[in-house]
Amino acid sequence: MPLTAHVDERQHLIIGGCDTNDLAQRFGTPLWIIDYATIEQSVESCKLGLAAYPNGSIHYAGKAFMCLAMAKIVKRLGLGLDVVSEGELYTALKAELEPSKLLLHGNNKSESELRMALKHGVKIVVDGISELSLVAKIAAETKKTADILVRLMPGVEPDTHHYIQTGGTDSKFGLPIDELDDFISIVLGLKDSIRFRGIHTHIGSQSHDLTPYLEIADILADVVLYLKDNYEVPVEIVDVGGGLGIAYVKEDTPLPIHDWAAGLAKQVIRAFSERGIELPELILEPGRSIIGSAGVTVYRAGHEKTVASGTRYVALDGGMADNPRPATYNARYTAAIANRMNAESTQTTTTLVGRYCESGDIIIKDAGIPAKSGDLIAVFATGAYNYSMASNYNRTGRPACVLVKDGSAEVILERETNEDLLSQDRVPAWLSD
Ligand SMILES: Cc1ncc(COP(=O)(O)O)c(C=O)c1O
Question: CA dist 373 to 73, 317, 339, 365, Å?
Fold first, then answer.
């Protein structure tokens, strides 16, 4: 739940000082609600943990949730930002984030994305040898020198769904470590167009403990030593990615973000000191652990039915188009009845389903709440990878999103209207009459 969540005397769910029932009335449902205080607290805890490191910085991973207001929050809280597309980069630049605090990621960046990054002096995290050639070509053409990091495939995987593991040896992300010599040899021949700044890795998402990161610290320190000893190439920046999990259901017990940052700082210091190497700048890239529990989605419950198996289905007015995670990788969530928070939990198998035309559009199986038609259903921890993965499936507009803080709520993403849906449509002349 967000930090500010509590229940008032009417048994309504309050977030950021706002009654979620009033928000639903005012802005409609489904509605994404983002609690500013929760974001701020996660960031402050992360900073406090990282304070154990002499030269550390936090880059929020924009893919978790990005819009102009979020980019402004990133700026206000003094973070750097990771972007993975032209759209995210454009949003960051429009929010006047300093380009030197941006990193462009991606396993298949387009020429246009690379040109935009180079034009603004944004560092590029290069994914492999063929991308290195493309970056060098564009840099030479535009008479720029690209500041690059290389993303390594470290062969370490967190204990999470395989769709969100990225660090193994069979991954579409990063440079296999055994290609590092070739990569560096090419870099050394491209001194005018490429400035090698550092190494990066990201092992995957929703990791609950430090174990995989401990291995990462040693692998990265070995790489830095290898580059120093064999090529006299200094590594200024070591970026260990993001991936810290959050609690979606009561069985989830992730490490607090402070301990994750402090633990990483300690391990990197140990790994580098043991090898006698100067400490590089350390970057952490948390996404979900900054924004995930700040988000709550409220839905209005519609029709109910109980089928032969005994399952009771309660249909929500949203579903897989605003939250594709359960259908994509069986993500689990926790819900409450925001208009009667004292409703006793129940053994009845109430399954909260979405309104979209897929049987797999199930938001929570056996939700354990006695939801009924007309209730306002709050689904927690929807701040990360909900809006950013949302779609217009069944030609529905995406919900509005409000930012709540100290009792006030402001729209940061307007609800998409039917007109918005039509705005990109074009009809060939021969079909027009
Ligand atoms: C390169 C990189 N950095 C950071 C993140 C953020 O991960 P999380 O939101 O799990 O912290 C991701 C997520 O996929 C990523 O690919």
Answer: 37, 11, 12, 17
Q: Whose CA is nearest to atom 3 of ligand 1?
A: 241
Whether residue 266 is predicted with pLDDT greater than 70 in this model: the reply is: yes
From the candidates 18, 46, 357, 401, which is the catalytic residue?
357
Query: Is 357 annotated in the active site?
Result: yes
For residues 208 and 5, the model is more confident at 5
pLDDT tens per residue, range 359-393: 999 999 999 999 999 999 999 999 999 999 999 99
CA of 184 relative to ligand 1 center, distance in Å: 25
Burial class (CB in 10 A: 0-12, 13-18, 19+), 429: exposed
In which residue are the tokens 């489904």 written? Answer: 30
Q: Is 90 exceeded by the pLDDT of residue 123?
A: yes
Residue 308, number of CB atoms within 10 A of its CB: 5
Distance from Cα 289 to the centre of ligand 1, integer Å? 10
**Distance between CA 249 and CA 15 in Å, rounded?**
19
Cα 147 to the center of its chain, rounded Å: 24
Rg of the chain (C-alpha set): 23
Distance of CA 242 from the midpoint of ligand 1 (Å) = 5
Average model confidence (pLDDT) for the chain?
94
pLDDT: which is higher, 52 or 158: 52
User: Which pLDDT does position 143 carry in this prediction?
Assistant: 95
With 0.70 as the threshold, say if the pTM is over it: yes
Q: In the beta sheet, which residues pair with residue 304?
A: 314
Q: Which residues line ligand 1 (CB under 6 A)?
A: 61, 63-64, 82, 105, 202, 205, 241-244, 285-289, 384
